[in-house]
Every structure is written in structure tokens, then in C-alpha cells.
Amino acid sequence: MPPVFTRLYAERLDSVCAVEVREAKNGDELYPGLVLIAPGSYHLRVKKDAKGGYLAECFQAEKVNGHCPSVDVLFNSVAERFGGRALGVILTGMGSDGAKGLLAMREKGAKTIGQDEQSCVVYGMPKAAFNLGAVERQASLEEIPPLISAWLHG
After folding, report:
1. Alpha-carbon span 38 to 35, nearest angstrom
2. Which residue has the higher pLDDT, 1 or 54?
């Protein structure tokens, strides 16, 4: 995603979502109700701070799976830091970025969801994750929010 697009995308989502949405900055503290969008041309990962909390780390590096930001970079860091206390969702998109990272999350005990083919614009990323065994449950775009809620509160 290009740098200007990610900021505008985050601003648009923030205007229509009940949670706070913004473009991530290096060092942002993670907390419930915050959604961070990886800035264009930067990878995003989660790291632990000295006080035991978690921070966003934005950094420039080579493309992963042809992408920067790469979903695999983020998901792999979530698998490392949170293990079975995480929930990962992969949505419509081209290619296979995110499939291996989602598998790493699932192998560490995280719950994982892939958007189903019928509700995808492009069934590339969710299909790659499903075929790899990374997806625990496929669901339509409409079914994903209540499924997340049920898993979090069940």
C-alpha cells in the first residue's frame, strides 16, 4: 500500500468504526479498542516493551512475499508474542501474503479465521491460508464479527 493511501484509509475507517483507527507510528502503545494500519512502505510488528506492555514497531526492510508492508511480518510477530492468546483474520486479497504467518499463529494456539470464497472480491490470500492449513474457520464477511465476538467471550 502506498504511504498516502494508508493514512487516508486509516482516517476513513476511523470515521466509520466504533474503535479508534489510525496509521501506526513506531512506538505506539497497543491497547484494547485500537486498530493500527501499517504505514505504506513500512513493515509492522509487535514488540514487548520494558514494562511488559506491547508496542508497534514500524520499520523499513526488504519486501516479504513481494510486499511492504507484509501481513506475514505482522502475523509472525503476533504468533511469537501472544501465542494462543491471539486471534488472526485474513481477508480478501491477491497472492499468498499472510498465509504462513497465520499458520504460525495457529500452530501457537491462536484462533484463525479466513474469509470465505463467496464473500471475497479476490479469494487469493484466504485461499492460500486455507490450503496451507492456517484457517481454523472460514466465514463470510458478515459472519466474521460475531464469530470473533463469540470466540473472545466464549
Report:
1. 10
2. 54
